[in-house]
Amino acid sequence: MNSADFTSGDAQKHKTLQIQVFVHCVHCGVMVFMVGSSAMQTTELSLTSFGLALDTSEHTFGELRDSSDIAHNDAALRQRMAEDGYCFLRNYLDKGQVHAARIEIIRRLVEQELLDLNYPAIDAITNPTPRTGKNHEALSKNNRSLHELLYTGRMIALYERLLGGPVRHFDFTWFRAVPGGGQGIYPHCDIVYMGRGTFNLFTAWTPIGDVPLELGGLMILEGSHRQADRLRSYLSRDVDRYCTNYPDAGEIESGSKQWQDWDGRLSSSAATLCEKLGGRWLTTNFEAGDVLTFGMATVHASLDNHTNRFRLSSDSRYQLASDPVDERWIGEDPIAHGPAGKKGKVC
Q1: Which end of the chain is more exposed for a tag (fewer CB within 10 A), N or C?
Q2: pLDDT tens string 261-273
Q3: What is the value of pTM for the model shown?
Q4: What DSSP designation does 307 have?
């Protein structure tokens, strides 16, 4: 199996934001692109995020700027990050490593009985009647192929250039396996989930295989990193702080309830937030080997999955090794957002 086998849609390399949906091949049951064939149909897909429709007109929706031409230029990368709040690097990572990580993730999804094995497993078709619940932590824990992709070689070199010195990564790896028909994530900034260490911290969003628009990739709100003054109150919050004098404090402390009154979202509506803050939602048809990195004050969200396949991607974090680190995300078994990570106060 070679890199062309990542997903059934890999033969169709979208280069613009024209959205095309292709009929299912009656023989293989997966999305196909057949040039010149009467079996191909195109139609407009109404993009949604967190279940709500998006305005995809040119003044509110656009393409991420590709910074792959400056991927090895330290000063230019830092300047681009300061300007845009993100750097999108097309085909920066080794496709063979991405493929190896995808194979291992697929193996684990099969073990969890989350794939429809009437179709090739590599296509990650969602099991319409799964017998088990999703365990995304099990997809990344002790996953050597994934960790080599994210925490060695080109990825570490990228953050050494961006940060200007030796780096460390969080020990916790967030893995996203969004099933067919699943919703994306609401608009937010990462600092509210990991702000107890340095603010000079970067996220890498890495597609593990191709992620065209209809599969539900990440979106960046253009210029949002320059709204820090306007978002000061939001950016200063910590999602794991709770009020000890509230009736549900015991549930928070026992772990039976994760959040008290807030889950970190800046808004539930990407469209409404775009109107309030300005800027466009920027995304692209992601390909295996791409990486999208951004800072803690950059507002982002994701599109919903309008296919029958899993969208597979990872979130990993990087900072200078000399800077303080958020204790929730380090160690062999990070405490994460569990009871040990909560901080109570009288409200």
Answers
A1: N
A2: 999 999 999 999 9
A3: 0.87
A4: S
